[in-house]
């Protein structure tokens, strides 16, 4: 069987009607040409150039140009010239034949839409068939190429009929509902007469004009005509249906794939092609009469859409609740897989950058003052599901079963996962349009909501991991000294816990306290500097850590004062002496090998008592301190005698 070629699609906002329709047309044509399709989609058009856009654009970093036989770029859906041109340049370097739709780009096979002829036909129809003379043109943004072209078209056709477009009747609606609503209100307050027709440069503005006219008690088309342009999904359910013009997206997708196929077969498809719009004559210009019984036919699909939205939102609510209770990555991955399976994806995977659960390390550095570790580049495959088979989280270089899935499926969609300004990973799903004999699962109307919800779920888990680690770190700092020993608070908490366990055991136990005090700290600080004094303190701490076992509690109470507690069931005097001897041995080893101009030495005091309900820790510590001060005094006298010699 001939190996299928692979076509990539790069675009923004696949959830929108126009982009969605072209993608499906490409998929159908690719199937006819025995090609697979990899879709790299950003849920943004990159107008805002904000943090969200920065996260979305990383989906295009996933493109493996080496495996592509052709690339289709939806140019007008990526409003970032640098980003779009970068994708095309990367493809050129890898000799990947590239088609650009709706945005002329040098070096590509360009598919453009002839907006002008369709808009001219619309204006001609309004004047010639309906006899309109007073025209209000609802344009897009000022100085926008699409908008300016349609203004020029309207002027030319009106001029041909001996009419003139009054500048006061050009309303700038910026292609959106709210600006159109404001522009309509300004016009109605201008004192100008109602026009014969509102010719709108897109359907969204036309629908808004219809609503505003209804608010004013005016009927469409009874009192005034309205036309739109573009043929958006909402128009399909609008009453009255709009007279509008639609791009022939089916032909656009077909031409894109045909150009790639021709190139691969050694034919020169040329530089590109131009595709005309289709004019749709309907109710809003009066060409068709409104039959309100048709509303019944519209209510049913709208109800299904709304019901589907409710079901979808319920799934998302369940996923949020389930993921919020996930105690570890295995459970989180299982929950995501379970809920993704509800949508019938034949393949589904989430791959996180580095150790996703450790993305909190920069927060910990704020507390500890230690720089976060550098990632080793590993990937965490959080979850992966291939046609009913689930796989547990695992570390690796990338998806473990994507290649296996590509043997079975023909269409895959990739997206970026990001939050808090960080690129967290990416997701991929394998879908079917039904052309491969599988039950279709290509309804991606909810995909934007799903991916944003998934981002939220992953961020929530990460935030909980951050919070847990920060709390643990704060707790650690609360009971530990910077040397690694317990501080006074940590010492009492831990030794009280061990005493309680010992008393509950019913066996005879002794509590031993070793008081340790660093000798000559002031001399070291004054003679060699405080940095060396810190070395001496850390050396004593390390000596205590070296003897720290299951039944010892080692602490620094402050400055040069250290306390060791130990619980034993045999000879307490022998146990205490063993601890002291081991501490001294550690310091002697340091002094022998350190090369320091001073010795790290300490004074010791040992005291013990049998454990019972009346044991007073502070009393034993006080007795050990007293013995330590006797030892310290002897050390001081000995140093004084040596100095006098």
Please give the radius of gyration in angstroms: 38 Å
The total domain count is 3
Q: Please count the helical segments.
A: 19
Low-confidence stretches: 359-375
Return the average pLDDT rounded to an integer.
Answer: 88
Shape: elongated
Largest sheet: 13 strands, mixed
Which CATH first-tier class of the largest domain would you pick? Alpha Beta
Terminus-to-terminus distance = 99 Å
Architecture of the largest domain in CATH? 3-Layer(aba) Sandwich
Q: Give the class from helix and strand content and strand pairing.
A: alpha/beta
**How many extended strands?**
21
CATH superfamily of the largest domain: Response regulator
Question: How much of the residues is beta strand, in percent?
Answer: 15-25%
Helix content: 40-55%
- At the fold tier of CATH, the topology name of the largest domain is Rossmann fold
Fold topology:
Elements: E1 5-12, H1 17-32, E2 35-42, H2 51-56, E3 70-74, H3 81-93, E4 98-101, E5 109-114, H4 115-128, E6 135-139, H5 145-160, E7 170-172, H6 177-188, E8 197-200, H7 203-215, E9 225-227, H8 233-236, E10 244-247, H9 249-264, E11 272-280, H10 294-324, H11 329-341, E12 347-353, H12 361-368, E13 379-386, E14 389-391, E15 394-396, H13 402-408, E16 411-419, E17 422-431, H14 447-479, H15 488-505, E18 510-518, H16 521-528, H17 530-546, E19 552-558, E20 561-568, H18 572-594, E21 602-610, H19 617-644
Parallel strand pairs: 1-2, 1-3, 2-16, 3-4, 4-5, 5-11, 6-7, 6-8, 8-9
Antiparallel strand pairs: 10-11, 12-13, 12-17, 13-14, 13-15, 16-17, 18-20, 18-21, 19-20
Helix pairs in contact: 1-9, 4-5, 6-7, 10-11, 10-14, 12-14, 16-17, 17-18
């Amino acid at each position: 069987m001939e190996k299928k070629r692979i076509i990539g699609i790069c675009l923004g906002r696949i959830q929108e009607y126009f982009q969605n329709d072209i993608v499906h047309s490409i998929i159908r044509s690719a199937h006819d040409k025995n090609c697979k399709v990899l879709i790299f989609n950003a849920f943004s058009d990159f107008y805002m150039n904000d943090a969200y856009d920065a996260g979305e654009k990383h989906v295009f970093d996933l493109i493996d140009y080496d495996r592509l036989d052709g690339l289709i770029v939806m140019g007008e859906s990526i409003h970032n010239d640098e980003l779009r041109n970068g994708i095309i340049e990367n493809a050129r370097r890898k000799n990947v034949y590239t088609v650009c739709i709706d945005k002329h780009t040098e070096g590509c096979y360009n598919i453009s839409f002839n907006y002008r002829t369709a808009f001219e036909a619309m204006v001609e129809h309004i004047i010639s068939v309906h006899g309109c003379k007073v025209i209000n043109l609802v344009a897009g943004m000022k100085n926008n190429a699409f908008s300016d072209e349609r203004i020029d078209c309207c002027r030319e056709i009106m001029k041909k009929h001996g009419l003139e477009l009054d500048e006061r009747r050009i309303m700038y609606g910026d292609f959106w509902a709210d600006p159109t609503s404001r522009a309509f209100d300004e016009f109605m307050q201008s004192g100008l007469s109602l026009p014969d027709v509102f010719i709108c440069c897109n359907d969204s503005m036309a629908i808004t004009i219809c609503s505003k006219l209804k608010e004013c008690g005016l009927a469409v088309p009874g009192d005034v005509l309205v036309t739109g342009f573009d043929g958006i999904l909402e128009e399909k359910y609008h009453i009255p249906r709009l007279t509008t013009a639609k791009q022939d997206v089916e032909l656009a997708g077909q031409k894109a794939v045909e150009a790639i196929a021709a190139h691969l077969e050694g034919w020169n498809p040329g530089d590109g092609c131009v595709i005309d719009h289709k004019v749709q004559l309907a109710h809003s210009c009066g060409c068709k009469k409104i039959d309100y019984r048709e509303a019944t036919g519209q209510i049913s699909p709208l109800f299904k859409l709304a019901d589907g939205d409710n079901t979808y939102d319920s799934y998302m609510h369940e996923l949020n609740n389930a993921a919020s209770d996930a105690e570890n990555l295995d459970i989180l991955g299982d929950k995501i897989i379970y809920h993704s399976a509800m949508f019938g994806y034949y393949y589904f995977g989430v791959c996180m950058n580095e150790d996703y659960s450790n993305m909190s390390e920069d927060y910990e550095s704020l507390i500890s003052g230690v720089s976060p570790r550098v990632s080793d580049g590993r990937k965490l495959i959080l979850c992966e599901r291939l046609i009913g088979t689930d796989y547990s989280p695992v570390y690796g270089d990338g998806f473990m079963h994507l290649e296996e899935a590509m043997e079975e499926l023909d269409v895959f969609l990739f997206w970026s996962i990001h939050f808090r300004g960080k690129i967290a990973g990416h997701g991929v799903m394998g879908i079917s349009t039904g052309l491969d004999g599988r039950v279709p699962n290509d309804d991606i109307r909810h995909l934007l909501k799903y991916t944003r919800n998934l981002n939220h779920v992953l961020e929530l888990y990460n935030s909980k991991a951050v919070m847990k680690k920060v709390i643990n770190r704060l707790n650690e700092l609360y009971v530990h000294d910077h040397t690694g020993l317990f501080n006074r608070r940590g010492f009492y908490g831990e030794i009280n816990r061990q005493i309680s366990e010992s008393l509950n055991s019913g066996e005879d136990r002794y509590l031993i306290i070793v008081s340790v005090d660093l000798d000559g700290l002031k001399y070291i600080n004054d003679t060699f500097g405080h940095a060396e004094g810190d070395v001496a303190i850390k050396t004593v701490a390390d000596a205590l850590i070296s003897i720290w076992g299951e039944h010892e509690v080692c602490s620094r109470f402050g400055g040069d004062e250290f306390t060791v507690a130990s619980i034993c069931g045999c000879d307490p005097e022998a146990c205490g002496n063993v601890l002291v001897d081991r501490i001294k041995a550690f310091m002697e080893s340091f002094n022998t090998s350190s090369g320091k101009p001073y010795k790290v030495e300490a004074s010791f005091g040992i005291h013990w008592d049998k454990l019972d309900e009346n044991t007073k820790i502070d009393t034993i510590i006080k007795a050990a301190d007293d013995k330590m001060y006797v030892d310290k005094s002897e050390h001081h006298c000995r140093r004084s005698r040596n100095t006098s010699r």
